[in-house]
Design a protein that fits this description.
Layout: E1 2-7, E2 17-23, E3 31-33, E4 38-39, E5 45-47, E6 54-62, E7 69-70, E8 74-76, E9 85-89, E10 93-100, E11 111-115, E12 130-132, E13 138-144, E14 147-154, E15 161-168, E16 173-180, E17 185-193, E18 203-208, E19 214-219, E20 225-231, E21 236-241, E22 248-253, E23 260-264, E24 268-273, E25 284-293, E26 296-298, E27 304-307, E28 312-318, E29 323-328
Parallel strand pairs: 1-9, 10-16, 17-23
Antiparallel strand pairs: 1-5, 2-3, 2-4, 2-6, 6-7, 6-8, 10-13, 11-12, 11-14, 14-15, 17-20, 18-19, 18-21, 21-22, 24-28, 25-26, 25-27, 25-29
Length: about 325
C-alpha cells in the first residue's frame, strides 16, 4: 500500500508512523496491524509492504504533534497493490473559557472535560481530554477532533454542569466559553454501630433527583463522618452499606439541615440441624431463610446447600429481625 501523508492544508508530512489495520476476524472483531508500521519520508511518501490482505482495511497515522488519523476504507486482494492513498493528519481544534460562581467570581481548580454523549454518569477527572481552571478561572483544552462536543465541569462544593453542542473546528480555538457553577446543598452526618462506635469505611450513596437522576457516593472516615456538598435543593434518598452490617435505606432526607446519625446493626447467623421424622440427620439439604416483614415473608438472601453427617447447618450474614427457615431435599417435605 503506497501513498502520502499530508496536513489538513495539503503540506506533505515526514516522520509520521503509518500502519495498515484490519479486523482480526468476524469471530474475534479486534483491530490489529496487518503489517509492520513504516515512517513517511521527507516528501511524506510511504510504502507499507508485506500486508496481510483483507476487507474493510484502513491506514492509521500517528505523530506526537497531530491527532491519530485514519484513511478511507479499502480492500486488499492477495498479491495486489494499492497506489495513491492519502492520509490526512489534523492538529484538531481547541476550546477555552472561564469558570465562574453564581456572582461571577472566577473559580480556581475546576475540572473541565470533554465527554462522550453515550457515557452515563462519569467522573470528569477520569476523562482524557480535560483541563483545570487557573486562579483567574481560565481553562484551555487542545487537540480535539472536529465536530460537536459536550463539556462537563466539576468543582468541589458545586453542582456538576454540562454544556452540549460546543463546536470544535480544525486549527481554531473556540474561546470565551463561560461555565457558571451553582453552589450545591450539603448533607452530612455520622455512621455508628448500635453501641455507639463510629464505623469507618461505610459507603453512603445519595440518590438525588433534583436535576435528573444522580447517584453520588461517599465513604466514612475514622470517626464515621461523611459529607455531600454538591447536592440539589430537594431531599435525597440514602443507602448506607458496610460489610458485616445490615444495609440501611433512608428516604426523603432534607439537605442543608443539621447533621444526621445513621446506626447500623451487625449481621447475625443461625445454626442448627435438619433431621427426618425418625430423628435421623439429613446429610445433604438446602436451607432458605426468609425475613418476616409484617404479614409477608421476603427473600433477601439465596438458599444454601449443606452437606454434613450430623445434619448441621451454619447460615451467617443475616440481617437482624424475625426469620423463618425452610429446608428442602428431593422426596422430602419442606418444613
Amino acid at each position: 500500500v503506497r501513498g502520502q501523508v499530508v496536513s489538513a492544508s495539503g503540506v506533505p508530512l515526514p516522520g509520521v508512523s503509518v500502519s495498515a489495520r484490519k479486523m482480526h476476524s468476524e469471530q474475534n472483531p479486534v483491530v490489529v496491524n496487518a503489517a509492520p508500521p513504516v515512517t513517511s519520508d521527507s516528501t511524506g511518501n510511504f510504502e507499507v509492504v508485506e500486508v496481510s490482505p483483507g476487507l474493510d482495511m484502513f491506514l492509521e497515522g500517528s505523530h506526537s504533534q497531530y491527532l491519530i488519523s485514519q484513511s478511507e476504507i479499502f480492500d486488499l486482494v492477495a498479491g495486489s497493490s494499492i497506489e495513491g492513498m492519502t492520509l490526512v493528519m489534523k492538529i484538531g481544534g481547541a476550546l477555552s473559557g472561564i469558570v465562574i460562581d453564581e456572582v461571577g467570581a472566577p473559580l480556581e481548580g475546576a475540572i473541565v472535560a470533554v465527554r462522550e454523549e453515550w457515557l452515563g454518569e462519569v467522573n470528569p477527572e477520569s476523562l482524557p481530554n480535560k483541563a483545570y481552571s487557573d486562579a483567574a478561572g481560565q481553562w484551555l483544552i487542545r487537540s480535539l477532533p472536529d465536530g460537536d462536543h459536550t463539556l462537563i465541569c466539576s468543582v468541589p462544593g458545586y453542582l456538576i454542569i454540562e454544556r452540549s453542542g460546543v463546536v470544535v473546528s480544525e486549527g481554531r480555538n473556540t474561546a470565551n466559553i463561560e461555565l457558571q457553577m451553582v453552589k450545591g446543598a450539603v448533607l452530612e452526618g455520622q455512621v455508628l454501630s448500635m453501641d455507639g462506635n463510629p464505623i469507618e469505611g461505610a459507603r453512603i450513596t445519595a440518590i438525588d433527583t433534583s436535576e435528573g437522576l444522580r447517584k453520588l457516593s461517599r465513604s466514612t472516615d475514622l470517626t464515621g463522618y461523611f459529607q455531600f456538598d454538591n447536592l440539589g435543593r430537594y431531599p435525597v434518598d440514602l443507602v448506607v452499606e458496610k460489610g458485616g452490617f445490615a444495609d440501611v435505606r433512608l428516604f426523603e432526607q432534607p439537605v442543608d439541615e443539621q447533621p444526621i446519625v445513621v446506626r447500623l446493626e451487625a449481621l447475625g447467623g443461625i445454626r442448627g440441624t435438619v433431621i427426618q421424622e425418625s430423628g435421623t440427620p439429613l446429610r445433604a439439604f438446602s436451607v432458605s431463610p426468609r425475613i418476616i416483614e409484617g404479614d409477608r415473608e421476603v427473600t433477601r438472601v439465596p438458599s444454601r446447600t449443606f452437606q454434613s453427617d450430623e445434619g448441621r447447618y451454619d447460615y451467617d450474614g443475616l440481617q437482624p429481625g424475625l426469620i423463618t427457615f425452610s429446608s428442602e431435599l428431593l422426596g422430602l417435605h419442606r418444613t
